[in-house]
Structures are given as C-alpha cells and as structure tokens.
Amino acid sequence: MALPDRRLAACALAAVLALAVLHTWPLAANPGGLSRNDNADTMLNEWIVAWVAHQAPRAPLHLFDANIFHPERLTLAYSEHMAVQGLMAAPLSWMGASPVLAYNLVMLAGFALSALALWFVVWRWTGSSVAGFVAGSLLAFNAHTLTRLPHLQALHTEFLPIALFAFDRLLTHRRLRDAFLLGIAAALQALTSNYLLVFTAMALGLAAVVRADEWLRPFTRRTAGLLGLAAALGAALVVPFLVPYYLVQQEQGLTRTLDDVARYSSTWRDYLSTAGRLHYAAWSYRFAEGTTALFPGAVATALACYGLIAAPGWRDRRIRMMAVIGLAGVAMSFGPALPGYGLLYHVLPILQGLRGAARFGFLGLVAVAVLAGFGIAALGARLGSRRWWPAFAAVIVIAVHVGALRAPLVYRPFPGIPRIYQTLAAPDVTAVAEFPFYTPATVLRNAPYVLNSTAYWKPLVNGYSGFVPPGYVGIADALRGFPDDRSRDELRTLGVSHAVIHLDAYGSSAEAMAAVLHDTPWLELVAVDGPVRIYKLVTS
User: Fold this and answer.
1) 517: CB partners within 8 A, 6+ apart
2) The pTM is what?
3) What angle separates helix 317-332 from helix 194-210, to the nearest 10 degrees?
4) Residue 418 and residue 455: Cα distance in Å, rounded?
5) In which domain, by residue range, is 112 found?
6) Are residue 389 and residue 434 in the same domain, yes or no?
7) DSSP annotation string for 73-114
8) Does 371 map to a domain?
9) SS3 for 226?
10) How confident is the model over 248-283, as pLDDT tens digits?
11) Per residue in 26-50, pLDDT tens?
C-alpha cells in the first residue's frame, strides 16, 4: 500500500486538526471547562467513555456489567458501548483527565481522523490530494456530524473509508494482507457504534453485489476466499460485543417497534435540513425543526453530480459502488415508509435495536463526499493546466467549509465533578442511590447522577440510557416517598449503603425535606457540600 509523502501527510493532518478546532470553536480554547452537558446524551456518553477506560483494564470480561441501574446486569448494553472511543480516551483518563476533557479530545480526534482517512482513500483512488481533501472535509464536517456533538458514536467514521479501500484493494490485488485490513477496519468501525456496524455491513454488502463480477468468476475463487476470511475475522472481533445486546433483548425486551422506527425516520425535509449558518439563515430554517440534518451541501451536490457524469463517470467501478451505497442509504432512511423495510426488520434482528432509521442517510453523505472527490479530480484533470486553477480549487474548498460552518457554538461551563462525590469512593460504600429519584418518564434527569458516578464507580440504583429496564419502574415506585419506611426497606433490599440528596432539586419543599432527613433515625449525615448531602444508611 503506497503511503503519501511524509510532508504531505503531515500537512493534511495539521489541516484537519485545524478544521476540527474551527468547526467546534471555542471548544479547543478550554476543552476541560466547556461541554454540551445541556444535553443528557452528552453526559451519558461521557460516562460510557469513562466506564470503558475504567473497566477494560480491570475486568474486561465484565465490561457490560456497568454500574448504573443497579441491580440489573449488562446495563452498558442499554446504549452504545463505544469500545473504540473508550480505549482512545483511556490514556487520558488514566492520567487524571475528567470525563468531559477526555470526551472533548476524543471528539476532536474523531472529526480529524475521519477527514484524514477519506482524504487518504480518495487521494489514492484519484491521484489528487485536493480531491482527497474535499472528500475528507465533506465526510467529517457536514450538516449531520456538526449537529451530533452529544453523540460521540456518530463522529468516529474513520474506519469505514479504510474498509472500502481495503475491499477495493482485495478485489484488485487478491492479497492476504488486504483481507486482514478489511476485516480489522470493518470490525473497528462496528465497535464505534451499533448504527455504524449496520451501515458498514450494508455498505460492504452492497459493494460486494455491485462488483460481484470481480469475485464470482471461477478464476477469482481466491478473491471469494479472501472475502470470506475478512468476513470471518470481522465477525470474530465483533460478535462478543453483540452477545450482551442479544441477552438484554431476550431478558429485558430491548426492542424498537416499527412505530418507534417510523417516528424517527426521514422525510424529504431532512435532506433540506442543516444548521450551517449560511444555509440555515437563508432558507433551511423552514425545514429544520424536528428533523435529522442531512443536507449534503450545495457545492458538494454539484461536485458529486459532476463526478457521476464526467469521465470516467459511471464506468468507474468505485463510482458505481459508492453511488449504489449512497442511494441505498437514503432509501433506508425513510424506514417503514420504504417498501420492504418491515420485512428486513423482522428478518434481521439487529434492525430491531435501531430506532433512528433517519441515520441511514449518513451513507448518502458518505457517497456524496467520495463522488465529490471524483468530481473535483475530473475538474482538475480538465482545468489543472490553467493558471487560475489553484485559486479556483481553494475557493471550492473554502465554500465547502463555509456551507457547513456552525461555529462559534454555544457550550455550557463544566466546573468539574463535585468533590463531595469522592466521599463515595470509601471502602464501606456498597451501592448508592440519589434523590430526587426520577421516574421512567423523567429518567433523563438522572444523567448528572450517572456522570458524577465516575468519581467513585460504585453501583448506582439510578440510571439513564437509551433503554429503561422494567425493574426500574418498581424501584422508582418504592422510593417515591423517601425517606419513609417503604423506601428504607427497598434501599436495604437493594444493598444501598449511601444516599445522595440534592435539596436544591426539591424547590419550595427543600427546607421541609431537610427537616425530615434530620429527624430520620436510619440516615446518618456524612458529608455536606452546599445543597448536596450524603447520608449513610444505619442498619441498627
């Protein structure tokens, strides 16, 4: 595999890092003190990344037995496990970085690595570094990714381009090393997100169909064998991470209904939706409310169309492959409105765990990025000898980023995990419950509790995730009257040793709650920090 010149690669890396800083500004100015913690999903994902970094070196076989929703097991499988992002963040966590700092740095890395990966692939496919830079920019910085900052799982797409590259190389050169690269890259992408697992499998499956003539003929039997080897390697790496999801589906009923999928599927409005300042202010605000931003960009669309019609156009097997992948992704994004989606939903159990069918539209954005790269490469082949071509190419690059730009973004200050939570790291703490204890209908308000648990990592009865286990309903009901006798008995049954009370969350009842807590004989005050109090449950 030919690698780019070191100077060129270093320039590309510096450029994509600078663009990641630009598009998320002012985050890089204070990555440990700024956050998107106004969104409960951000806090959940910060906790997930921190949990993987904490648990992987200690008890990797129990990675999914996370500390939330005690006493349930396999609670990490209630959401995305993000094993790859967690391992990326691990060195930061081990050096003492806060969950917010680790999350933000890994997020910036996701933008940069995704852009760099597709830059490399399109550069290799077209011979044009400018084409690669445009394609990488469109993959990493687009209407969709720039509205997904709370969802780290959507921002690490760097392995999909490498998997497609390895697939193409395998068909062309039929080498064992390409099969290994294909299997490993596909597995790594699958381990960043369950959605991306499905998207990657779908993209590679469609690529195999579109280019079946290159591996089905008798004299290409070796190619078919290498593809099988890559698939087996990828499956061996991924299946252990899927087993917990299967068990939770069977034991807890974690399944998204077709009605859920329909509610989170695309309409034509999604493909006109963008939060980019230029387009949003001019016209997209009419379509953006309640949609998934999937607008590919005016410049990107024009370049992609040119890539389809300019020589070699449709005759190029890579262009055909990417066009089919993109069209299929757009079609699938309409969910049950697409004829046949319901059949696939029942035949492929993994689809029953995906609620946001609209996110299939991401494959359309991937295709547009690659085809736009081919488009600008075709323009360069035609106009590259003109003196004004470098300036024109620079204008195209700038236009791509201006169309997507949302910065400066609004972040919430993050003062750090309150120091009082370090009290709960003591050996006598067996399990923790935080109050107010929110019901399933308001469970997202548990997100700060979940993030704060990274200070002590003891079992936490509270929880927030993409799924609420049925047992949580009964626990919430039993703790409704805390600190009454029924809640005392429930906490003891759960093995809870300490309770955290947020008096400021009780509003006008705060003083009355403080008085009741003071008069409750089975609660012993052990720490106070403003409105936050920690009590130990007295057994005698």
Assistant:
1) 483, 501, 523, 525, 533, 535
2) 0.96
3) 130
4) 9
5) 28-66+78-404
6) no
7) S-GGGGS---HHHHHHHHHHHHTT--HHHHHHHHHHHHHHHH
8) yes
9) helix
10) 999 999 999 999 999 999 999 999 999 999 999 999
11) 999 999 999 999 999 999 999 999 9
